[in-house]
Design a protein that fits this description.
Oligomer: single chain
CATH architecture of the largest domain: 3-Layer(aba) Sandwich
Largest sheet: 7 strands, mixed
Number of domains: 2
CATH topology of the largest domain: Rossmann fold
């Protein structure tokens, strides 16, 4: 039986990647030129292969002729894999120690949390569930992402069972409502959370206030080292003195950033911003 030959994947060179990323930037405003190149190359090659493009010139022609393909490729570069209470042990530490301490320090003032790179919102809603469980009346969550489509899904607040595999069943029952399209977040959660488009590469915080908790998990791993350092500075700058930074399981601050932090929990990648002298 003739099983055929494996399909050869198209190739793309450094110059081709630069051309494609420049085109995406010009069409969407999103600049992926400081993302890790192996990841960028894999996603470009995947789209070229899916469309049957033999080479980069042919794919560039598709991008120039079809705006929807620019959008599809741009979405491949963003991070949209998430679920409620991903790496549940981190949320155990937040629920048991970190958030109660932050609420105590806030002294009744509004507690502000930022879920940076929130994708379709699962992390932002998970933080809101923790705040509901702690009965924190003046606490809120801002979820931000670069991808408008992901933010629309986040604001819609509908999720499948697969999104909830790590969520404690009792919390799911209390804070999500079953329906024909899966599970919807409760009105109480919706009152705590809002979503906003924001580009971490832009160098500024999404709003002109500081946060008590900033969670940016499994995002930095997609960035080249220089961009990682700039984004880490932004995240720490966005924290109140004593505020807490939460990173992903494979992420760690560079030395310059770490000098501004104290480690709360090495395994959970939780750090507190050291107050500046004189404050």
């Amino acid at each position: 039986m003739d099983v055929g030959h494996p399909r050869t994947l198209p190739s793309v060179g450094l110059h081709d990647i630069e051309r494609i990323l420049a085109l995406v930037h010009a069409r969407t405003g999103a600049d992926f030129r400081e993302y890790r190149r192996p990841m960028i190359e894999r996603r470009i090659v995947h789209r070229m292969s899916a469309l049957g493009c033999a080479g980069a010139n042919e794919y560039v022609g598709v991008l120039e002729a079809e705006p929807q393909e620019v959008t599809r490729l741009s979405r491949r570069f963003t991070i949209d894999v998430s679920r409620f209470f991903r790496n549940a042990g981190v949320f155990d530490v937040l629920r048991g120690d970190v958030l109660p301490a932050l609420l105590g320090r806030a002294g009744g003032q509004p507690l502000r949390c930022w879920s940076a790179g929130t994708a379709s919102g699962q992390e932002a809603w998970s933080l809101a569930i923790l705040l509901e469980e702690l009965a924190a009346p003046r606490a809120s969550v801002l979820g931000t992402d670069l991808d408008p489509a992901a933010l629309r899904n986040a604001a819609r607040g509908w999720y499948s069972e697969a999104d909830l595999v790590e969520a404690p069943p009792a919390w799911t029952e209390r804070h999500l409502e079953p329906g024909p399209r899966g599970f919807a977040v409760s009105p109480a959660l919706r009152r705590r959370v809002r979503f906003l488009r924001h580009d971490l590469m832009g160098g500024t915080a999404p709003v002109p206030v500081r946060f008590h908790l900033v969670s940016c998990r499994n995002v930095l791993i997609y960035f080249a080292p220089a961009l990682q350092r700039r984004v880490l500075r932004l995240l720490v700058d966005a924290l109140e003195p004593g505020g807490v930074l939460c990173l992903g399981e494979a992420e760690w601050p560079d030395e310059e950033t770490l000098a501004r932090l104290t480690t709360i929990d090495r395994g959970a990648k939780l750090f507190a911003r050291i107050p500046e002298k004189g404050r």
